[in-house]
Design goal:
This protein has 400 residues and is mainly α. It is 64% helix and 2% strand. The radius of gyration is 22 Å and the shape is globular.
């Protein structure tokens, strides 16, 4: 009787831990969805279509891709929480986050830089892009994982809410020399050293990743309670964005940004959607993370071919990222070859800041056709890699 009671206790105490031994499908499906959306924006880069503008079709083509970076960063933090539960070793988790983060930084400056441009001269143009940002955020998160997840999560929320404070140090008297290096952390009014183009600063994104890490605690609740919380939290964040953005737009007549142009002031709905991404404002993050969180219960139950495809993409997001740049770039060269009689790779030597002449830009219909073809090509590549990673992985696959 005593042995049976002991076994029952062990099994009962092991149940929460065992829940983290398998992947969380809802997170994978949402990550897969944003992977698909990301491809729209990167096909847009190679098409020469501008990043937003007063035309509704162009504006919405850009806007729908805004969900990508916040979801990647937030759920990277959540995935780190799951990994910590599985490893049950803070030191091992820290080593993984720091080593993988540094690898992502190196990949951004080398392989990813090449895939964007097909330019072997890696010193000609350097970009601190989204993978750079994710890498450094993982490194910083690794330094914090000895703290309680709840504490890490609240620190992350605080960084997001108070991010403008980070603009103050380089503007303080006698601190001007700090501004170039500070440009990697938060906009400082100075150019980053070595000619690096900083697209993604570390703040507020480190706050987003830390908040995502703390968010992982919600999976310790029962499914019904957890799903109810996700819907309420996600819709509440979305509602807060709509109210605050509407009030701000009405009060200020806000325009410009990606909805701007030389024409008349954009309509109110466009002003509400037109939130600051560089650096990501509080309203931008409410707008993008709210729907992503509310989507989780539905994503968990999404089956069929579409749900399976998104789940596959979401299981191997870094592999997808590398492959999607290669596939999109090659597709763009083929399309440009057909349309102009030449491959025109010279227009992409500073991609994602492509230099496509206005007369060579694609129509939106062609952009979406090329995007659909790229997704169909990417699916078998990701399905193969996911299967290999699951059944017979090489040691390096845990990082990609």
């Amino acid at each position: 009787m005593a042995e049976a009671a002991l076994m029952n206790r062990v099994e009962s105490e092991a149940t929460p831990a065992l829940a983290f031994m398998t992947r969380v499908r809802s997170v994978d499906v949402v990550r897969g969805l944003v992977c698909v959306l990301m491809a729209i924006d990167h096909v847009r880069v190679y098409s020469g279509i501008p990043a937003g503008g007063p035309a509704p079709g162009v504006f919405l083509t850009r806007w729908v891709t805004h969900f990508v970076a916040p979801a990647f960063c937030f759920f990277a933090g959540t995935a780190a929480f799951f990994l910590g539960k599985r490893l049950n070793d803070t030191g091992a988790l820290r080593r993984f986050l720091v080593s993988r983060g540094l690898l992502l930084v190196v990949l951004e400056l080398t392989l990813i830089r090449f895939l964007w441009s097909f330019n072997p001269n890696l010193t000609q143009f350097s970009l601190a892009g989204v993978i750079w940002m994710l890498g450094w955020c993982m490194v910083v998160l690794g330094l914090f994982v000895g703290m309680k997840p709840k504490t890490i999560g609240w620190i992350g929320v605080g960084i997001v809410l108070l991010q403008q404070v980070f603009a103050l140090p380089p503007r303080a008297p006698g601190m001007n020399a700090l501004a170039p290096m500070w440009a990697f952390l938060y906009p400082s009014g100075a150019d980053a050293p070595l000619g690096v183009n900083v697209l993604y600063v570390i703040v507020p994104w480190i706050g987003v990743m830390m908040a995502g890490y703390g968010f992982g605690l919600f999976w310790e609740r029962d499914e019904t309670s957890r799903d109810r919380l996700f819907v309420r939290l996600g819709l509440g964040m979305t509602a807060l964005w709509i109210v605050m953005a509407t009030v701000f737009a009405v009060a200020t007549g806000g325009s410009g940004g990606e909805a701007g142009g030389d024409g008349p002031q954009p309509p109110l709905w466009m002003q509400v959607l037109n939130q600051q991404k560089y650096p990501a404002s509080q309203l931008f993050l409410l707008m993008t993370l709210g729907p992503a969180i509310a989507l989780l219960p539905w994503a968990e139950k999404w089956r069929g071919w579409a749900g399976t495809a998104l789940d596959t993409f979401g299981r191997v997001p870094m592999w997808y990222y590398l492959m999607h740049l290669l596939v999109i770039h090659l597709t763009a060269l083929v399309v440009m070859g057909i349309r102009t009689g030449g491959y025109q790779n010279g227009w992409y030597l500073t991609a994602p800041y492509a230099q496509v002449p206005p007369e060579a830009r694609w129509p939106l219909g062609l952009l979406y056709l090329a995007w659909a073809i790229c997704i169909m090509v990417l699916y078998p590549l990701c399905r193969w890699y996911a299967a290999r990673k699951r059944t017979n992985p090489a040691p390096w696959m845990r990082y990609i």
